[in-house]
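The material for today's practical consists of a large collection of protein records. Read left to right, the backbone structure tokens trace the chain's path through space. An example says more than a description, so a record of this kind follows:
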Amino acid sequence: MHAFKFRAIILVAIAFILGCNEFIIVGILNDVGHQFNVPVASVGYLVTVFALVYAISTPFITLFVGRYSYFKSLMVLMVIFILSNTFSGLASSFFWLTVSRILTALVAGVIISLTITIANQIAPLDKRPWLIAWVFSGFSIASVFGVPIGTWISTTFTWRDSFWAITIVSLLTLALAYFSLPHKMSQETGNLRDQLALLKDHRIQVAITLPFFGSGGIYVFYTYLRPTLTTLLHFSTQSLSLLLFIYGLTAIVSNQLSGQIAQHGSLKLMPKVYAIEAILLFILPLVTGLQWVALAVVFCLGITMYLLNSPIQLHFLMVAEQDYPQSIVLASSLNSIFFNFGISLGSATGALVVTHLGLNWIGWGGAVYIAVAMVLVIWLNRLNARKPIKVTSHESL
């Protein structure tokens, strides 16, 4: 059990460094723009480019590495990640910084897919939801603690030092992973057609729409969280850091509750979750005149933000284990792929709503997508009832 807990910490640490690398740009926008004489808005496009490359490339690279040892694939990809992150710190121009971010995005999605796959394999059956929830929490912990620390490093020293710090932590994590994770792990071999067979299953086809519309709905609101707090709710800019920090804590709580949902009811509870989330988004525009009531609604939305993560991740993995064992790694990647596509949908929808209707309407715009997700999860539960998934356990590794 001690070995399992240590391995669990390593897997969460991998998610943490991936989160730090992905989110760090948000904290160093001004410093990068100043050094390269590039508008802050242009630096902001690095976030968009990263998310799109991440979402588009992950399934293709996942299909390739899925034929090889999980351990060796993880080690190779983490070395590429470390080199790409170091390249970001060395970038001599904005162009080369963009190239380094693209290289990092190419491997980041596959690394988290392998991390979740390994978590699913090493965890005892009753610990799977707990460990997967913690792996996802690694990203939330990065946004709450890692990014502010990286931002402090950037403002105190240079933005390049933020990347050096990530490299140092990544090297330590790589060494610990090499000596602690089991080396003999792989899925049943299969060609490209065999692996893609997973996507023909109706339970998978409906399931991938949930992170798409679910994250799309919340990101209509979340993309404009800062102006919501300052412009709509009239909180001071001095209090903004504290409010964002508290919201980050609600995101960690959300991931942990996600593990509990996966353990006690799983997807069967998600229609109620989506109903609550849709109601919160719907009433937000109605209570903006009541500052503290509206703030409570905002924090409640933070708690609902990641509740789907563990239930849908376990659904993908269990369907693959039972009927498509050659597609385990691909199954592990589906949630993060479509979550990132959902981010693009939500942020683009939010921009349209704010431009044509106004900031106060973003709650209703997000509620529409959440309502769609609620209908889809009811459909998915009916499909699962027709063809129940048999949960299997792994031998101790």
Residues 2 and 89 are 36 Å apart (CA to CA).
